[in-house]
Structure formats: C-alpha cells, structure tokens
Amino acid sequence: MNTKLLKWAFILSLITIIYNLIEGMVSTLFGASDETLALFGFGVDSFAEVLSGVGIAHMIIRMKKGKVEKHDSFEVTALRITGIALYLLAAGLVVGAVLSFSYQTEPVTTTAGIIIASLSILTMYFLYTEKLKVGRKLKSEPIISDAKCTKTCFYLSFILLGSSLLYEFFHVPYIDGIGGLGIAWYAWKEGKESMEKANTKKLSCGDDCC
E-assigned strands of the chain? Predict the structure, then answer.
C-alpha cells in the first residue's frame, strides 16, 4: 500500500482522537453546568468515539506492515467497550429525557452547544472528506468505513446545533430533551454497529454505518 497515504490516514485518526477528547471534556463540562442534556450526551458520545479512534489508529499501524483482513483482539476489545459505552449512553439519555419532560426542566443556556456544534460540523466534514479520499485511493474498506462513521458524527453535530439554536433563540419547550433523544438514537445505532463488528471481526460496514 502507498505509505504516504497510510501516514496521512494515521494522522487523520490522531486528529479524530485528540479532537474528540477535547470536545468530550468541554461538552460534558458545559453540558453539566448549563444543564443541557443534549450537549452533555454529545460530549459522552465524543469520549466513546475516542475509544473507537484508538482501535482505528491501531488498525492503520497494522496495515503499514501488511494486508489486514480482520480486526485483531485489541481492536475487538476496543469495539466491544465502545459498543457497551454507547448502549449505556443511549439508555442514560432516554432516562434523562423522560425526567426532563416530567419535571419540565430547561437548560440555563445553550450558547456553548451552538459554538461546539458549529466547530464540530466543520471538523467532522474535513475529517470525513479526507478519510473518504484516502480510503478510495487505497481501495481500503476499513478506512472508507471509518469515514462513514465520522459522517455520523457530522450528523450528530447538526442535531445538537438545531436543538441548541431553537432553545437559545425561541425557547422551544422540551427541545433539549428531544435533542437528547436524537443523540440517544444515534448512540444506540453506533453501539449496535460496534458490537456487530466485534462479533464478526469484519472490517467494513454498510452504507448506514454507525
């Protein structure tokens, strides 16, 4: 395989890990302080993406040494931990949304959510397009699969941005809880995909990856 392209793919995986780690810390911090369920859930999902990203980086290192046909034990473990974490996140967000609806709680502000979501949209679009280009040039299903999963993070950012904008400017009731449920649905879907990959050890996924 082209070593230059693999090096760029590895750099992209490191950017994904570092960005999601910072995004996770900032999002959970502001999500808790501003009492916004959608932002907090978005942050926890970012931490789960860090675990997934570590597995991808490990896989690319293996690809530099030769052809990779299946996930190894390290990657399978990372996928299973990611899957379990995402299932727990989905369940927690559903419970949180129900409590939010029951007690009619609303965020203090969603300004942080607007800023974080906007930055995430730009970053995830860049990562998605670059990973897709590298994957296609290398004819690598694993890298293309990773690009599709990054695209899902791109969609999640729009859910957060939409719910944050609607509350901040129009104070739409329950919109933060609804946004949390939207993130919970994607988290469950991502978790299912991670567990399926871990069980089958397959490197690729379908068009609806993650």
Answer: none
The alpha carbons of the chain give a radius of gyration, in whole angstroms, of 17
Count of the separate structural domains present in the chain: 1
Dist CA 200 CA 48 (whole Å):
20
Write the CATH number for 25: 1.20.1510
pLDDT tens column, 78-137? 999 999 999 999 999 999 999 999 999 999 999 999 999 999 999 999 999 999 999 999
Q: How far apart are CA 76 and CA 84, in angstroms?
A: 12
Is 206 inside any structural domain? no
Is the residue at 207 inside a domain? Answer: no
Q: Which residues contact 152 (CB under 8 A, 6 or more apart)?
A: 186, 189, 190, 209, 210
